[in-house]
Amino acid sequence: MSVKGFVSAVAKDLQENRGEREELYKEFHKHPELSMEETETAKRIAGELDKAGISYEYVGDTGIVATIENGEGPAVAMRADIDALPVPEESGKDYASEEEGKSHACGHDFHIMSLLTALQAFNAHKDAWSGTYVGVFQPGEETAQGAKDMVENGIAEKLPKLDVFLGQHVLSSLPGAHVGTKPGVFLTSAASIRITVFGKGSHGSMPQLGVDPVVLASSIVMRLQTIVSREIGPSDTAVVTVGSLQAGSKSNIIPDKATLLINTRAYDKDVEKKVHAAIERIVKAECEAAGSPKGPEIEYYDVYPLTINDEELTAKVRAAFDEVFGDESIDITPQSASEDFSYVPDAVDTPYVYWAFGGFADQENAPGNHNPAFAPDLQPTLDRGAEAAIAAAGAWLANQ
């Protein structure tokens, strides 16, 4: 059976159950939960799996692994992240978030529905395929905690020996309903860095009696701008962002410390190491130059690995997408976003393929992920996410 024929057979219920799926999607969208707090989201997913008669196990508090065994054949896993963001929704949708200060502003609700729909379709049409299909519902992607948590809680013991691990993300950076693939490096590594520098408090009218951490932190911010422009080669790519600088509380008080929150991105581990070394060198040197009474505190957190697609397996997925989606299967450039997706396949020594699908018909005016207005078009996004999940797995599981 061709992959296109396989998708037609397995996904043939999508039109019939579209209304039901849209209503379920809206429930996920209206009730977002933050990273590692996805209790009700996990319960709703488990309830849908129960209704379909699909076997599953919890991994940690809110992670779920669902497994459909269907005779001899390859074993394919697909991951969906399930957490939301501390971002108030401003999409204007009539199904907007009902949880104050929280929203699915990254599109994980579409990922949940794509995987749930694929699992239900595979379970309902076992005559079209053989092997094992595994759905991994992962918490805590937005804080880089969830994949590690599933590894630490023994996900390896709950998975068969896998042939491939699959993942996808809805984005505004490619046309609506299109799927974009890329072999090799697809997403950057990332790290957040909390840096505290110390001064000596004083009255604002007597600056000579203190060491001003506001001036110190400001000097650091300006010097950090030279890392990418003067230390990273023109053919390499890196991002250094100072997202927060906090110090003091009153205009006439020189505080005794300042805190900077920095975020870095890179497509190469050596480049990332160079960026981090430069940040630490600059911070320490500026502290010494300012006469800081003690050295800085530097803490790394929310650390994400590179996402590097297996080239041979990506070609296999791309061929399936070309067959099923035609001109809507396209190349995509490396994305400067980051993911903790690869922690799990790396932990179980499995090659992986990660791709993107477009969520907005009006791509030119589409808000980016994490924007308060980010809420992709309900259709055809909902269907396309499910179809892509089914087509990619079909490259391995379709009956020949």
Automatic annotation (TrEMBL):
InterPro entries: Amidohydrolase, Bact_exopeptidase_dim_dom, Peptidase_M20, Peptidase_M20_dimer. Mn(2+) binds at C106, H108, E142, H169, H370. Gene3D superfamilies: 3.30.70.360, Zn peptidases (3.40.630.10). The Mn(2+) ion enhances activity. Keywords: Hydrolase, Manganese, Metal-binding. It comes from the Bacteria. GO terms for biological process: diaminopimelate biosynthetic process. GO terms for molecular function: metal ion binding; N-acetyldiaminopimelate deacetylase activity. Residues 190-288 form the Peptidase M20 dimerisation domain. Coiled coil: none annotated. Its cofactor is Mn(2+). This is Amidohydrolase. It comes from Corynebacterium glucuronolyticum.
